Amino acid sequence: MSQDVVIQSRQLTKTFSSGTAVNQLDLSIPKGTIYGFLGPNGCGKSTTIRMLTGLLEPTSGEIELFGIPIKHHEEALKQRIGYMTQAFSLYNNLTVLENLNFVAAIYGLKRTHRKARVQKLLQRYDLLGREKQLAGSMSGGQKQRLALACATLHKPELLFLDEPTSAVDPENRRDFWEHLFDLCDQGTTILVSTHYMDEAERCHALAILEEGNKRADGSPKNLMASMPATVVEASGNDLRGLKQSLSRHSTIVSAAQIGARLRLLVRQDINDPIGYLQSLSSSHHFELARASLEDVFVASTGGRHVG
Ligand SMILES: Nc1ncnc2c1ncn2[C@@H]1O[C@H](COP(=O)(O)OP(=O)(O)OP(=O)(O)O)[C@@H](O)[C@H]1O
Q: Exposure winner among 3, 66, 96, 284, fewest CB in 10 A?
């Protein structure tokens, strides 16, 4: 295996009594990448992350981190990885400083280093002056920054972030991504799960997950270029009626209204989608449009996740 691959999984599977949460997942994520898991609730993002961090034992399949099999090496690998959960895993009844010191103690940071490291993180994540504030009394954005400070306190080479921005507003989300790119610049590999398209678009590469299966993967640009459907926008009167009539055809993967246009995904095997659509409705205007990551997501999941 190449030294530069930080996360490798082969046929990774987890089955619960309720069913298969992750199904034969193959991953190969190079160092210094921000890699995304994009998918709806329940598609297996958290379960995969928990297996990759060594917290949950797979039903079958293999995982290597930094070329080291995770099995039997959990403790050694723990020092090299950071993990931030959806709930930010902070102690709400401890202060900002107490949370950081607690994490520092868990990772065995020496007292002499601890103070300087904590100070640096307080500054980096704009928490100076809040040292004595209870974590539970902070805003979503502040909690998120503290959680990131805690997850990176021991300078992990690999960082797992499970839906880190679900509880924050768009401005905080943008700032948070700036921090992620800073970390990435310093050589940290980051795996981030999300159900936000704009967030997925910022990743170097991503996997689209549905019901535990990987439906597509690659860079956002390549995914958009190789989308398995053609995007067409329709305009004219009664778009709701047009949507209803087109949705009856299995050749239309999805139809969603966006403002005064109806965005259509037409199955790839239709050679002349504009001519085809005109034959279905002569009173509307149809034109080809550029694919977005959302289109890729809809096409990869067969239109099952869009209304
Ligand atoms: N400990 C468990 N026991 C039984 N079923 C579980 C367990 N953990 C997860 N599941 C099931 O596995 C499937 C995948 O869940 P998972 O939490 O990994 O999805 P997710 O994509 O992270 O969604 P969310 O964003 O809602 O957390 C779901 O059907 C869930 O109910």
A: 3
